[in-house]
Design a protein that fits this description.
about 675 residues, Rossmann fold, 8-stranded mixed sheet, 11 helices
Amino acid sequence: MPDSFLDAFNSLPRVAGLALSADGTRLVAGVATPAPDGKKFLTSLYGIDPEGKRSPRRLTRGGKGEANPAFLPDGSLLFTSARTDPEAKESDDEVPSLWLLPDGGGEAREVHRRPLGVEMVRVARDSGAVVLAASAFPGSSGTEEDENRKKARKDADVSALLFDSYPIRYWDRHLGPVERRLTIARIPSEERLADPVDLTPASGRALDEQGFDVTPDGSTVVTGWTIALGRGERRSQLVAIDAATGQQRVLADEADVNFYGPVISPDGATVACVRVVEADYDRPPTQAVYLVDLATGEARSLAAESELWPHQLAWSPDSGTVYLTADEQGHAPVFAIEVESGRVRRLTASGAYSDLVVSPGGASLFAVRSSVSQPPVVVRLDAGATDQQPEELPSPGAGISLPGRVEEVRTAAADGSPLRAWLVLPQEASAASPAPLVLWVHGGPMGSWNAWSWRWCPHLLAERGYAVLLPDPALSTGYGQAMLERGWDGWGNAPFDDVMRMTDAALERPDLDTSRTAAMGGSFGGYMANWIATKTDRFKAIVTHASLYALDQFRGTTDDVTFWERVFGDIATQPERYADNSPHLFAEKIRTPMLVIHGDKDYRVPIGEGLRLWTDLMRAEVPAKFLFFPDENHWVLKPGNARLWYDTVLAFLDEHVLGKDFERPALV
């Protein structure tokens, strides 16, 4: 048995992703657990009983994991996996191919392989047409040419990439030398997928990170489509592609607007997507559900006045309602919007939801639910109910006991705006035994502490006796546009003041120790940790992960400078926000001990930020440590590295907050 929650943490089942069969009798979830060697997480597919009567059943056991479950009309299950086909020739490639698990059970079989892998799958509900997103070399005419070019690069030991457009990388990968394409085919009666038809033979960078869907009859594919505007600027259109001819037509295109995540209605007539009016120097972005008539192109926003910040969308079977999840007051509920009236109804009162799927009759929705106090589980919702408590279905990871209790802290900002935060407390915290407090600022900055996070888990600190404050300051989502606008003129202004006010409010509690406090955060939260270090010495220690530090430097090295300049401006003509909000310009004021953490493969916040901060701390002789991960990105994804991250953070906090000797983790 594990000695602690930290010992058990990496082994807990991690549920994410749902697929429902056309008849509604089979529900499949992805569940990630450590691989047998413990060096990575692998996702397997589990059958979940939609009626909640039977225990979950594992469906796949591939040594490379499985992803992208999608049902064919006959109940067969498609998925992608890099597992080896026992009937294929030996290969050392580890690219995912398309597999099929028959409805009646038996062995899964490979039905389609591409030299550069299959990335995503969508199935036409009625016709069974299969649309694949897969990589190809630019200008390639098909699988054989891709195979030859891949082999030629490998034989020549060439890894170089040649770019002629921006961006050149995304989060932790370079956008080359391949491009994403969409193909369509059907599963005939024989064993393999029919030869797919390439619908986008000259896609270039247009399909990078874009979502897509296919009409029930398989006649039309709708996708986001990125166009280049010059000077590194881009815009995402909504495009319909005729499956028979490959002919494209633009459904939605506006200046300074992007369209994402298209989902086609069951009657095949309407596309729902997320319309984002992009930010500029003076205002934050706005988001709304957007409907486009597939035949006429007529379009309108749906309930835009609600100020919901929509995430995933789903349709009711009668095409009369759009379901969505959206951040709201520290939660991410499920909402229903009537297409005709625009009336908004909230189905759930608490928790954070994702992966919505709707039953064929429309009476139920299935989703993955989590919260700050509960890991993800599969639940069933009554489509007609309001502010309900969902029915939890038997699924891996259910019933986990956590070492901490969760409460809420509320106060007001300097301008009177209401502020709130979650507070995770050790079970033993009391007025007689007050707990030390760790302030933990979320990333984004447009985000919210409302869901369970495998990466940022406050309960691991609560087990060690720390209370953890999770604030939603200015720039957080779920509180309306005014909350974004409050922080838009400078990250170091209202967001910093809000965080400090929520810390003060929490420390009024008798079960918290005002003399033993620390601050930490990652990404934007790491920026805020750095900013806090330049503004106050009230904390005993500060932990900063993947953090922005020198904003002028960051502007030229991040993978998405265009978004950055919308917020902070062109540094040549609008240097004010850089000068007023960059921690490195105030480095001489840092006195608090700091733990700097960074991954070398982080392209969103490149390693130069961590290195420059570390150098400044050393030159100023500030007590500091630098935890460096050569093989990790913006997050820390390998089980061993994740464990080491927490071991090091806790050792650093114990040293400076509790006064213990630093206990160096054994493996570093």
